[in-house]
From TrEMBL:
Name assigned to this protein: NagC family transcriptional regulator
InterPro entries tied to this protein: ATPase_NBD, ROK, WH-like_DNA-bd_sf, WH_DNA-bd_sf
Segments for region (Disordered): 1-24
Signal peptide from the UniProt entry: none
Family stated for the protein in its record: Belongs to the ROK (NagC/XylR) family.
Classification lineage: Bacteria, Bacillati, Actinomycetota, Actinomycetes, Bifidobacteriales
Amino acid sequence: MADQAYTGSLPLRAHGRTTKASPSDVRRLNRSLIFNLLFPASRYSRAQLGRMTGLSRVAVSDVVAGMLDEGLIRENGHVSPVAGKGKRAMLLSVDTTRLRIISIDLAQPHLVQGALTDLLGNPLQHMESALGPDVRVDADTIVQLVDQLTADLDMGSLVGIGVAVPGVVRGGVVSESTALGWRDVDLKTVLETRFTVPVTIADNVMCTMLTERFFGQAGPNLVFVKIGHGIGSATLINDVPVIGEQHAGGEIGHISPDPEHGPLCPCGKRGCMERVISAVVLRERMIGADETTRTAIIREAGEYFASAMAMPVGLLDISDVCVYGPADVVNDTFLEAAQRRLDAMTLSKFHDRASIRRCQCGAEATLRGAAVVVVLHHLEEE
């Protein structure tokens, strides 16, 4: 099985099955190997890809030809031969000109955002639907937004639709979303029936983390926390997302570090993180406060956050904690207080310093990550 050999890291794939691989499985794996080496912005020749993957020249040529025809990659420039003689090799890169993705973000209160993107998640068209304070998001709202984004689109170029959802997702079904008021909503089937393209439903924090991983500063090991209306997290271990047995990995908003004396939460417990350091709660506490008091509130929130992060950092031996949130909450005061507390709780002779930093990927990070999820799922299909 020489044409399967690969010793590098395969970004963001789930653990594979142990059954014997069929020819189509091998081809799919080879396609993923090559595409992931090029994604998002690398350029390699066919010979370089062969050396990096261990695949034979015939296998590389076969897979590359199929990806060129499909529109996943393109020939993009030449590399000069080492000795200065002979034919210059053609370089390959991700093709951003032909295939398109629809991304939908449901994680923002009273707002549904959508974008038409290329394979790198770069928005080519943006639309949004603002909802009244008493209006719930439903499938019809999403269908209407996708209809608008595909109105002038050649549907043959559409790879799929990616939807970022705040909540627990299993197989395209939103099992539970407190923010949306949804339970057991089969959004995947609704959208696939209407638009006849593959649909991927994913946790919104996971989507935002993928943007940080591919286009930000993150490496293959990361704890990513999103602070907003609620609090959620996602984790990468050697570039494998931690999903959890119940597909609820990262649902930290209702973990309570102070179940006896903390504020009462609608879930019935006391001291849940969402009731202590979410952006909504902190902003409410800072209304009418002077600057000294506001600073103290944010500093206390940073310390509380670090206390919660100390356990996963120590347990998983991760040195990168990235926080995504509004600048009035996740700012220098918050980060400095969090770093001091984390250092005090985790530094040791055998554990290097774990850093807490702010995500710099911008307001459309979740939309872009939803597009990345579509690309990764597309690679797993024949």
